[in-house]
């Protein structure tokens, strides 16, 4: 409502600037109404815009708190460290969550963002699916693994497919492995009717036996070469992207860039090289640490990939200080989105598992049984819980996700 101090004295009509300054809530209402125009955009685009805006709101709240002196400006070494390295720590924490989702919960990430990580990341889609199934005590996609192993020249670099290292003793074919899981429906007499190969396959799933390095990078003879190839492939993909980003930023500055063309070209080149080395080093460090975990972890554990991503993201210090906060804000909304989806899904699924298991997907019930109840039961129950459905080959989370479908969170 217009008052005497918001009326333009020259023409007697309300002064919009004065009204906005007097009542900031008007801008809140206007912003909320104008955001409805985003309903015309695709859902994934709307979600990305909302997450990015939310990250910027958090940044603005922090800056506002500092201006209002709500955030302490002086303190001990902890506050001093947070002021100096808080952006880097935020990037490392959020990257850990995103890389955990990349391995264990791809359904919690937007499809385009997930595929960007897969294309730039250290491991093939098949290796990721095998790792995720091992972490959740599910049978491996043996046929897909064998095809990838052969196409990546794994036989040339490492010898025959490492079935024994995967717990599939004396078995280099899919038929024997498939028969193991299909026989799970036979009940308590299963182990007395099968061979040591069956017992080895059952134990491998139950104990989440670590996937060997030869399965994770069949294209490389050693772990060092795998890290180098990861670095090189990531650099080849990201160099044009960063060159375009920094080049357009220079053009946006207009006359200032033209006044000093040599300095501008040098700045663009150095910034492109620095960012390319950062991102390539990050994915190479992830690959090296994954190989290292083969020597120190007792079994496949999803949380370990959060930890190794946190350590690998220390490469953020390669970037300029001014870029670290921007990178942290880029990853933050994805990490928050993934974390809240994972937490909400876990809470809901555990509630249904405890009270209404009949409404859950049978494969999910088997996986949760394996985690919480199967290990305390007889061996035949364990086999029955990990036995896949008849169309287990069709249960390919990564294949569905790469086609834009959202797989079940199992």
Tell me the layout of helices and strands.
Elements: H1 16-22, H2 25-34, H3 43-67, H4 77-104, H5 111-120, H6 125-135, H7 142-151, H8 154-158, H9 174-182, H10 196-206, H11 213-216, H12 223-252, H13 255-259, H14 261-296, H15 302-312, H16 321-355, H17 362-373, H18 379-386, H19 397-402
Helix pairs in contact: 3-16, 4-15, 4-16, 9-10, 12-14, 14-15, 17-18
Protein model, in words:
The protein has 410 residues and is an all-alpha fold. The protein contains 19 helices and no strands. α9 crosses α10 (196-206) and α12 runs antiparallel to α14 (261-296). The protein is globular.
Radius of gyration, whole Å: 27 Å
State the order of secondary-structure elements, H for helix, E for strand.
HHHHHHHHHHHHHHHHHHH
Uncertain residue ranges:
170-200, 374-395, 406-410
Largest sheet: none
Strand content: under 5%
Question: Can you count the beta strands?
Answer: 0
End-to-end separation: 55 Å
* Shape by Cα distribution: globular
Helix content: 55-70%
Structural class: mainly alpha
Return the average pLDDT rounded to an integer: 75
The helix tally amounts to 19
């Amino acid at each position: 409502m217009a008052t005497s101090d918001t009326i333009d004295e020259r023409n007697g009509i309300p002064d919009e600037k004065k009204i906005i300054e007097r009542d900031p809530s008007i801008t809140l209402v206007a912003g909320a109404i104008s955001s409805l125009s985003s309903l015309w955009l695709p859902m994934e685009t709307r979600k990305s815009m909302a997450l990015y805006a939310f990250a910027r709101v958090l940044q603005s709240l922090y800056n506002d708190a500092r201006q209002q002196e709500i955030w302490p400006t002086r303190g001990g070494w902890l506050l001093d460290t947070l002021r100096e390295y808080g952006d880097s720590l935020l990037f490392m924490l959020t990257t850990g969550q995103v890389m955990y989702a990349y391995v264990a919960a791809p359904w919690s990430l937007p499809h385009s963002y997930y595929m960007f990580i897969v294309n730039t990341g250290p491991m093939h889609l098949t290796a990721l699916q095998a790792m995720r199934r091992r972490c959740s005590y599910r049978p491996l996609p043996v046929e897909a693994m064998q095809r990838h192993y052969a196409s990546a020249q794994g036989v040339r670099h490492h010898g025959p497919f490492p079935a024994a290292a995967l717990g599939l003793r004396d078995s280099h074919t899919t038929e024997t492995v498939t028969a193991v899981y299909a026989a799970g429906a036979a009940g308590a007499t299963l182990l007395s009717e099968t061979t040591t190969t069956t017992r080895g396959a059952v134990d491998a799933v139950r104990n989440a036996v670590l996937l060997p390095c030869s399965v994770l990078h069949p294209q490389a003879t050693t772990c060092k070469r795998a890290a180098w190839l990861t670095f090189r492939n990531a650099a080849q993909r990201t160099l044009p992207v960063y060159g375009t980003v920094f080049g357009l930023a220079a053009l946006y500055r207009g006359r200032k860039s033209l006044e000093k063309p040599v300095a501008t070209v040098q700045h663009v080149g150095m910034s492109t090289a620095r960012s390319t080395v950062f991102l390539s080093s990050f994915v190479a460090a992830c690959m090296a640490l994954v190989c290292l975990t083969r020597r120190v972890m007792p079994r496949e554990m999803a949380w370990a990939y959060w930890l190794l991503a946190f350590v690998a993201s220390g490469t953020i210090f390669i970037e300029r200080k001014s870029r670290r906060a921007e990178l942290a804000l880029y990853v933050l909304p994805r990490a928050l989105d993934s974390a809240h989806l994972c937490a909400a899904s876990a809470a809901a699924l555990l509630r249904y598992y405890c009270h209404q298991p009949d409404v859950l997907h049978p494969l999910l019930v088997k996986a949760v049984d394996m985690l919480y109840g199967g290990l305390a039961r007889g061996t035949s129950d364990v086999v029955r819980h990990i036995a896949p459905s008849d169309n287990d080959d069709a249960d390919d989370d990564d294949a569905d996700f790469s086609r834009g479908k959202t797989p079940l969170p199992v």
